[in-house]
Structures are given as structure tokens and as C-alpha cells.
Design a protein that fits this description.
By secondary structure, this protein is mainly alpha-helical. The protein has one domain. It is 62% helix and 3% strand. It has 21 helices and 5 strands. The strands form 2 sheets. The chain has a 3-stranded antiparallel sheet with strand order 3-2-4, covered by helices on one side. 55% of the residues are buried. The mean pLDDT is 87. Keywords: Cell membrane, Membrane, Transmembrane, Transmembrane helix, Transport. It comes from Haloprofundus marisrubri. It holds the Pfam family Xan_ur_permease.
């Protein structure tokens, strides 16, 4: 214990081993859904010829766990920050549905793009350029990131809890069959129980709320209650498919643990590459991952009180390097871009302040390899209660924004609003970065904007053009 205390400097950070372990467990429980979701998304695009669909899903689950563990170990032992890493949601969907299925790029070539992106990140981080670019992000955008991520987390969580549903007219609406849906009812009860535990100052309140909600869900299922069928929702309304229990099927297949067809597949992908098309794919991966990671580090750092007086995360190059190494390792193993998870904020809210939190998460990822099917034992709606709790807590960060200054309010407001409405952290940051120099120019405060900030805004405008104009598709 003395060795851990000395290495992670518990006393200096105002924490202890018990707090760090609870924080790590909380973060792991909150983000464990990725072990199930990532393989499901990637298996739609990755076809390993001599493997069944079930074996492919299990292979991808193993790769997901290994890449998440390696990246988080680097975060824990090198960066010593309480940030957890895993293949990123959104980036895996872009990999599968846009690059491979939509544009027809072989999945091996898509993995090659991930590896190249990771190596580029390592180089930029090593020379300090990545930190320099992040420090170009305007102060109001940095202070707004936490609130924007909070709203982003809230909509993800409320959808999984089936409190909100898709609507053909209003995009989202309150679940019209709420009173008939045990998932929604149990979720809301679990949410308020978790809030009550948190308000009472109970340590591990978020993790405890997740466990209690899961137990109630299993009990309700045993009594014969089931989720309101998604395909029977009122016309024009879309409910996310859900279940009162997680996947507890214990089916072991040795072939599912043999990941050799995925490891190094990127090498084959490099053998037949169209330079322009490949560059555009790498460019897209780069931008989304770069600013998703930057936003997450700043947002979670703000929650934990890690930022300095200028809104910067001290020694950010170390967690950035952990992210870069994770992305490279993930691509080599056979999964999409690894990134720092916004769910890390749940552990930070539980008091996690050092790399010990990340170390616990990494060890739990490794332990999960022995029981891959049990990684989904926590129902999604139960784990996502944590996202709503943290979303509410993260909204407190907006008090740091100078709302009475229009040149601060516009970029901050756009950052916060665009994230949930576009379902993208990167897009929210982009909106703030682009608007900052424009509103400063209009207000006659052009001297406040550096050349680098104009360049960053221009780069994002170019990115949006490439991403939405069809140029990328036209090159393939």
C-alpha cells in the first residue's frame, strides 16, 4: 500500500486507495457496455472468412478488452491520470458504416488508416504540437466543454433508460408508453435512488445505484415483467431495444478467442491503397479523434478540478500520448480508434484523482477476458443511469463562463448546444472554435485572436466541407 501511495501520490491529491478503487469500479461499470456494443458495430463490417458471426463477435470483444486494457494501463502508469480508454463510440460507427460499408473500403485498409492516425498522434504528441493545438482552443470553449459533454451524456443515458424516445415530428419525445414499460420505470426509480445516495454523501453511490438497479431489473424479469416491445411503440415513435436483464449466456468457443486473423490485418490493408482516398479517411479519423479526446480531457479535467487558471490541463501531453498509443495498438490488434472516455467523469465524481483509478479499470478489463459473456451482465439502462447523474453534475461547470460578454457567450453557447444536437463532442468544439474569431472580429476585438486560432477555425471549416460535401465519397 505504501508503494501505491508513493507512486500515485494519494496524499498530494487528497485521496486514498479505497476511494480510487471505488472510482475505478464506477468508471468500469459505466463504460463496460462498450465490450458488447463495439463488437456488434464492427462485426457488421468485418468479415473474417473462416469464422462464424458469433465467433467474429467474440473475437472483437476480446480485441476490445485487450486494446482498452493496454491503453488504460499506459494512462495509469505513465500519465497517472484517472482517465479510462477504449474503442470510441461514434468512431467505430464511422469505421463500420461510413468507411467500410458506405464507401466500400476493405476493413483491413480502414484498420491501416487507424494505425497511421495513431502513429501521427504519437509523433505530434512527442514534439509537443498536439498540446500546442489544444491550447489554441479559446477559453470560453474550454469552459463550455464540460456542460456540452454533460448534455451529450444525458441524451445517451435517457435514451438507454427509455425515458425519451425518437419521434418523427419532434425528433425526441417523452416515452409515450412510459407507464407500461418496466425498463423506463425501473430506470427512473434507480436514477432517483442514485441521486439520493449521492446527496447523502454515500461513497460509491453511482456504482451502488447501478448494482441496485440491475438487481431490481433481474428480480422484475424473474416475476415475468418485460420491456414494452420496441416494435409495438405508437406510430411515429422509436424506442431503443432494451431488456430487463443483460446477456448472461455463457457460451465459450476457443475459436472466438483466437484473434490472429485480426492482429496485423492492417498490413494487408496497406498493400492496395489509393493515396488520396486513404488520406481523406485518415484525415477524418484524425480530426474526430483529436478533438473528441481534447474535449474529453478538458471536460473531465474540469470536473475533477485539474485545470489551471487558464483552463488548460497541466502536463496534457502525457494523457495525449496514452491516447495515441492506445489508438495505434487498437488498430494493430484489429479494432477502431481507441480514445479517452467521457464516462471517466463518473469515476472522477466518485473521488478518483490519480492513475490508480485507471489502473483498476485496466485490471477489470483484463479480468473480463475470462468471462467475456458476463461483460454484458449489467443491463444497459442500469449502467447509463450514471451518465444522467454525471450530466447533471457537469452542468455546474458553466458558471465559469462570462455569459455577460457576448464574445464569450456565443462560442460557449454553441459548444454546449451543438454537442447533444449533433451527437458529437467534436462538432460542438468545432462550432465554438469557428465562431470565436468571427464574433471577436464583429465586436472589434480582433487583437484577442491569434493566428493559430484563425488557422484552427479554417481547418475546421475545411473539415466540415470534406465531411459533408460528398468529396470523400467522390474519391472512392
Amino acid at each position: 500500500m505504501g508503494l501505491l501511495d508513493s507512486y500515485f501520490e494519494f496524499e498530494e491529491h487528497g485521496t486514498d486507495l479505497r476511494t480510487e478503487v471505488l472510482a475505478g469500479i464506477t468508471t468500469f461499470l459505466t463504460m463496460s457496455y462498450i465490450v458488447v456494443v463495439n463488437p456488434q458495430i464492427l462485426s457488421a463490417a468485418i468479415d473474417v472468412g473462416n469464422r462464424t458471426d458469433a465467433q467474429t463477435v467474440q473475437m472483437l470483444a476480446v480485441v476490445t478488452l485487450i486494446s482498452a486494457a493496454v491503453a488504460t494501463f499506459v494512462m495509469a502508469l505513465y500519465a497517472k491520470r484517472p482517465f479510462a480508454q477504449a474503442p470510441g463510440l461514434g468512431l467505430n460507427a464511422f469505421f463500420a458504416f461510413t468507411v467500410v460499408l458506405g464507401l466500400g473500403i476493405p476493413w483491413q485498409t480502414a484498420l491501416a488508416a487507424v494505425v497511421v492516425e495513431g502513429l501521427l498522434f504519437i509523433f505530434l504528441t512527442a514534439i509537443g504540437a498536439r498540446e500546442y493545438v489544444i491550447n489554441l482552443v479559446p477559453e470560453p470553449v474550454k469552459f463550455a466543454v464540460g456542460g456540452g459533454i454533460g448534455l451529450f451524456l444525458a441524451i445517451i443515458g435517457l435514451q438507454a433508460m427509455r425515458v425519451v424516445a425518437g419521434d418523427a415530428s419532434t425528433l425526441v419525445t417523452f416515452n409515450p408508453v412510459f407507464a407500461q414499460d418496466p425498463v423506463a420505470i425501473i430506470s427512473v426509480v434507480g436514477l432517483f435512488v442514485t441521486f439520493a445516495l449521492y446527496a447523502r454523501g454515500v461513497r460509491g453511490s453511482i456504482a451502488l445505484g447501478i448494482v441496485l438497479t440491475s438487481v431490481v431489473g433481474y428480480a422484475a424479469s424473474a416475476l415475468g415483467y418485460n420491456a414494452f416491445p420496441a416494435d409495438q411503440a405508437p406510430q411515429g415513435t422509436t424506442l431503443l431495444s432494451s431488456s430487463l436483464v443483460g446477456d448472461t449466456t455463457l457460451t465459450y468457443d476457443p475459436a472466438g478467442y483466437d484473434i490472429t486473423p485480426l492482429i496485423g490485418a492492417f498490413i494487408e490493408g496497406l498493400s492496395n491503397v489509393d493515396a488520396l482516398a486513404f488520406s481523406l479517411v485518415v484525415f477524418t479519423f484524425f480530426f474526430v479523434d483529436f478533438f473528441d479526446t481534447a474535449g474529453t480531457l478538458v471536460g473531465v479535467g474540469q470536473t475533477g478540478g485539474f485545470l489551471d487558471e487558464d483552463g488548460n490541463l497541466p502536463d496534457i501531453d502525457q494523457p495525449l500520448m496514452a491516447d495515441a498509443v492506445g489508438t495505434t495498438v487498437g488498430g494493430i490488434l484489429g479494432t477502431s480508434t481507441v480514445t479517452t472516455y467521457i464516462e471517466s467523469s463518473t469515476g472522477v465524481e466518485e473521488g478518483g484523482r490519480t492513475g490508480m483509478t485507471a489502473l483498476v479499470v485496466a485490471l477489470l478489463f483484463v479480468a473480463s477476458l475470462a468471462l467475456v459473456p458476463l461483460a454484458a451482465a449489467i443491463p444497459q439502462y442500469a449502467s447509463h443511469i450514471a451518465l444522467v447523474v454525471v450530466a447533471v453534475l457537469m452542468l455546474r461547470n458553466v458558471v465559469d463562463i462570462a455569459w455577460n460578454d457576448i464574445t464569450q457567450a456565443v462560442p460557449a453557447g454553441l459548444t454546449i448546444l451543438v454537442m447533444p444536437f449533433t451527437f458529437s463532442i467534436a462538432y460542438g468544439i468545432a462550432a465554438g472554435i469557428i465562431s470565436y474569431p468571427l464574433v471577436k472580429l464583429a465586436a472589434g476585438e480582433i487583437d484577442d485572436v491569434g493566428v493559430g486560432q484563425w488557422a484552427l477555425a479554417a481547418a475546421f471549416v475545411f473539415y466540415f466541407f470534406v465531411r459533408t460535401s460528398g468529396v470523400l465519397a467522390g474519391q472512392l
